[in-house]
Design goal:
By secondary structure, the chain is an alpha+beta fold. The chain has helices at about 1-10, 15-45, 70-80, 140-145, 185-190, 210-215, 215-225, 235-275, 275-285, 290-330, 335-360, 365-370; strands at about 55-60, 85, 90-95, 100-105, 120, 135-140, 155, 160-165, 180-185, 200-205, 225-230. Strands 1, 2, 3, 4, 5, 6, 7, 8, 9, 10 and 11 form an eleven-stranded mixed sheet that branches. The chain starts with a helix and ends with a helix.
Length: about 375
């Protein structure tokens, strides 16, 4: 059977080429669509620092007789609901080159489902929030400017800190490129003078509904410590933009998948009809329908796998030689395990679905009719 298939491929090389080309083009379209989908979702999350539906902006006003210890106490109460980030701190100097940047003290009891993207190294864990070592995550622009990498030590306002991660995105600018993240306890213990503001803004990354449910209790605690607290939902248009980005991307991806499946199916029908005479000969020699269908499907899947492998190879070449050009023009087409899985899965599924129905139709042909 293998020798027969190879002879058929050789004698009908143009048809085989068109089949493999169809799978190749379909896989490239699907792979690029997958990359665009992933990048769109990432960008939607990046623009909102996560899912805005789970977040809450909290404003804390310090009254005259309230101390910074009271503020830290309230921050410890808020962290019970999710990760908190103090986003209203003044800029701070790093190293001795006079550079200053925004610093964002954070705290959490449990790691969030989403955190700032890390290019190299790691984000904080629960252990970093309580241990004695001072660790920080810095933006990629800071790392590039001061020539620092993961596990290097830098001075943050005369406080020696170890870099555990560098945040941002390789392919575009983000709001974290010039920011330093540090656990609240590390920053507060060494820089109490920075905690002298009258108003603080805290971003609660998750636990929005639970906090709102218990807000009266939190308000009572704040009143006892001469603190006024309010919360604000993120603007509805941000939530709508976030949802619309994901919905539109999903619709576009579904259309791409549909078009690819239709094209592959059309190629399958053409390939099967072109094999009528061969199938008639097989049936005349005693082959049953299941045997013929099984071998035709295997043949189609083999073509599909060749097309998928060629598509991935071509994309790797494009990324290798034109990645910088694509990124400058806002195109991000990275090959990941997701692209490979999608390519293989779609090839197998579409190949089988597209081959089975036409194969069943052509196997109904009687040997005498097929020979004519």
């Amino acid at each position: 059977m293998k020798e027969y298939i190879l002879r058929q491929w050789k004698s009908k090389s143009l048809t085989v080429f068109l089949m493999i080309l169809g799978f190749l083009v379909g896989n490239i379209v699907l792979s690029v669509g997958t990359s665009i989908t992933i990048e769109t979702i990432k960008q939607a999350y990046d623009n909102n620092s996560g899912n805005p539906n789970n977040q809450l902006e909290i404003q804390i006003n310090m009254k005259e007789n309230s101390s910074m210890e009271n503020f830290i106490f309230i921050a410890d109460e808020l962290v019970r609901y999710g990760e908190i980030q103090i986003v209203s701190m003044e800029n701070i100097k790093i190293d001795d080159n006079g550079k200053s940047c925004q610093i964002i003290p954070i705290n959490f009891l449990k790691s969030e489902d989403w955190h700032i993207p890390i290019i190299r190294g790691n984000y904080f864990t629960e252990g970093h929030m309580t241990d004695d070592e001072k660790q920080i995550v810095i933006g990629k622009d800071i790392a590039e400017e001061i020539k620092a990498g993961v596990d290097d030590y830098i001075e943050v306002n005369n406080m020696r800190c170890r870099i555990i991660g560098i945040c941002g995105r390789d392919n575009r600018e983000t709001q974290w490129d010039d920011v330093i993240y540090i656990p609240i306890k590390d920053f507060y213990n060494e820089n109490k003078e920075y905690f002298s503001l009258n108003n603080y803004f805290i971003l609660l990354k998750s636990g929005k509904d639970k906090l709102i449910e218990n807000f009266d209790k939190i308000t009572d605690i704040c009143k006892q410590r001469n603190i006024e607290i309010n919360y604000m939902n993120l603007e509805e248009r941000e939530n709508e933009s976030f949802s619309n980005s994901i919905v539109m991307t999903a619709i576009a991806s579904a259309l791409v998948f549909t078009i690819a499946i239709i094209n592959i199916t059309n190629l399958m029908v053409y390939w099967m009809l072109d094999r009528k005479k061969d199938i008639a000969v097989f049936k005349a020699l005693g082959a049953d329908n299941d045997y013929i269908i099984r071998n035709l499907v295997k043949e189609i899947i083999c073509m599909g796998m060749i097309g998928a492998a060629a598509a991935i190879f071509i994309q790797e070449l494009v990324i290798k030689f034109a990645d910088e050009f694509l990124i400058r023009n806002g195109v991000y087409c990275q090959i990941t395990y997701i692209n490979i899985i999608v390519a293989i899965a779609v090839t197998i599924i579409c190949g089988m679905l597209a081959a089975i129905i036409p194969a069943r139709q052509v196997t109904r042909i009687q040997p005498a009719e097929g020979m004519r």
